[in-house]
Amino acid sequence: KNLTASYASHQSFILTGIPGMPDKNPWMAFSLGFLYTLTLLGNGTILAVVKVDQSLHQPMYYFLSLLALTDVSLSMSTLPSMLSIFWFSVSEIAFDACITQMFFIHGFGVVESGILVSMAFDRFVAIRDPLHYASILTHGVIAKIGIVVLTRAFCVVFPVPFLIKRLPFCHSNVLSHSYCLHQDAMRLACASTRVNSLYGLIVVILTLGLDAVMILFSYVLILKTVLGIASRAERLKTLNTCLSHICAVFLFYVPLIGVTMIHRFGKHLSPVVHMLMANIYLLLPPVLNPIVYSLKTKQIRKRIIQLFWLRKDNA
């Protein structure tokens, strides 16, 4: 029996819904369905509005479109296993499918972080040199930034599946979450995971850590520029253009830090807390980012209202 279990653990993992409360899974299913629908509607609206409105064909809104696409991609990466557990009560996931999901979740996480840095650079250029803003951030430059962000994410996450695949799994094959993460699968291995841990730490420091420092540095330079503006009203107006981006940064980094802290120091906490934090980290930013940008960005808000009024009048 033990040999069979050992062999099975090589072929598949068991994902966890709500630990200790399987009867709550149907309730979670509708909540998740609602969140995924909101993600697609919100980000889809942002993409449609930017595409349709010529006045929004500016660097800031191109970066916002990239953020919306990344948010949708990140949500779609978790969707198959979430639906499988909460809608169909199927918690088993094939080993290769788990590794593939892991690659996309970590990859799009790094992409999102890179886009947030690009958006900080965009705000810095817009505030520091408004006259040359459009000539500095041309379509070609934005495309190159997008390619660099995608290439970096691919290169740093590419080794992860191979690092996991080389490990023997002879312990329990039950994962802590409703989707596959490198650090979660790694702890089930029955061999040394030092290389995996070290690589994971280096990636986090060189991508997410470095990105956070670069965003902070951008805002130090932005504040320095803003403080040089004589009029108080102008200072506030200029800072107001950064509010949406600041919210997006907090929405991404605060849950990420929370999940990391809980993984490292919260082993004594209830598994439900781990589950909630992990789901908040991946599901909340894609839902809230379009809402924040719609509420805080005048041009987008105005265009969305026009779009709905037009449909109402046509009806």
From TrEMBL:
Family statement drawn from the similarity comment of this UniProt entry: Belongs to the G-protein coupled receptor 1 family.
The residues that cross the membrane are 27-50, 62-90, 102-121, 141-164, 198-222, 243-266, 272-293
Q: Give a Gene Ontology cellular component term annotated to this protein.
A: plasma membrane
The way this protein sits in the membrane is described as: Multi-pass membrane protein
A Gene Ontology annotation in the biological process aspect, one of them, is: cellular response to lipid
Q: What is the protein name given in its UniProt record?
A: Olfactory receptor
Gene Ontology MF term list: G protein-coupled receptor activity; olfactory receptor activity
**Entry keyword set:** Cell membrane, G-protein coupled receptor, Membrane, Olfaction, Receptor, Sensory transduction, Transducer, Transmembrane, Transmembrane helix
Cited Pfam families: 7tm_4 (PF13853)
Q: Which CDD domains match?
A: 7tmA_OR51-like
Q: Which PANTHER family match?
A: OLFACTORY RECEPTOR 51H1, OLFACTORY RECEPTOR 56B1-RELATED
Query: Taking every annotated instance into account, which residue ranges of this chain make up the domain G-protein coupled receptors family 1 profile?
Result: 42-293
Cellular compartment(s): Cell membrane; Membrane
In which organism is this protein found?
Cavia porcellus
Q: InterPro entries from the xrefs?
A: GPCR_Rhodpsn, GPCR_Rhodpsn_7TM, Olfact_rcpt, OR51/52/56-like
Q: What is its main location?
A: membrane
Q: Which domain of life is it from?
A: Eukaryota
